[in-house]
User: What shape does this take?
Amino acid sequence: MSAPTLADEATIDATKAPLMDHLIELRKRLVYSLLALFGSFTVCYAFARPIYAFLTQPLANALTGQPGRHLIYTALSETFFTYVKVGLFGGICLAFPIVATQVWMFIAPGLYKRERNGFLPFLLATPVLFIIGACFVFYVMMPLAIRFFLSFETPGGHGALPIQLDAKVSEYLDFVMTLIFAFGLCFQMPVLLALLGRVGIICSAQLRSARRYAILGIVVLAAIITPPDPFSMMSLALPLVLLYEISIWCVRLIERNRTKQNAAAATGDKV
Assistant: This one.
């Protein structure tokens, strides 16, 4: 990153505050974040039944035309705690913009203006890419995964017992949440690599030279996360490879902007 200017140093000096003021500000941001999480959890728990019904829609679609299929629970408190998990899951997603804003408002005064302008896009891109990853797994991968696992059902007959899925409400929710978080985090690759490029830890040349190893790692990761069939694996691997290529382009763009800024600073021009 380019060195701060005298104006940047003056701006930071003007915002310096005693340690107690920082602690008070941190407490305020934490309180606001906790209130946002509690309020979001309350709202989502009130709508836990329709939210859970929405999450079970891929399974319901796969079982269309099979009357009598249902979800089960084997403990008295299982459904209650499942709805609590739904409330927490939805509350975290709903409150994330508010919590991220509070984090940004706490750390932004300690950053130079150039740093704030540089890191703000990464903060905005994080929830967008997470939502894209969550939608991808929910509408593309989950129907494929459910059909794959349902293919192991057997009708029985001739002295053999049938094997039929009776999914538990808690286990199905854990399955959905695991996939959504896994894919949402995988889709953060451009943000992570571009941020590392922004601070100068990696460069576009390193990413290009490590492309074959990155593709191998992506394929292995896709094989671990997705159901063990080639179509599901490629459905995750191809988007991740595309995101890796986008990351190289983003880092290269950051390097070009940094070169222009350094050249302008060296000639005495304003950046």
Observations:
- Residues 227 and 255 are 39 Å apart (CA to CA).
- The chain has two domains: 8-150+166-181, 188-271.
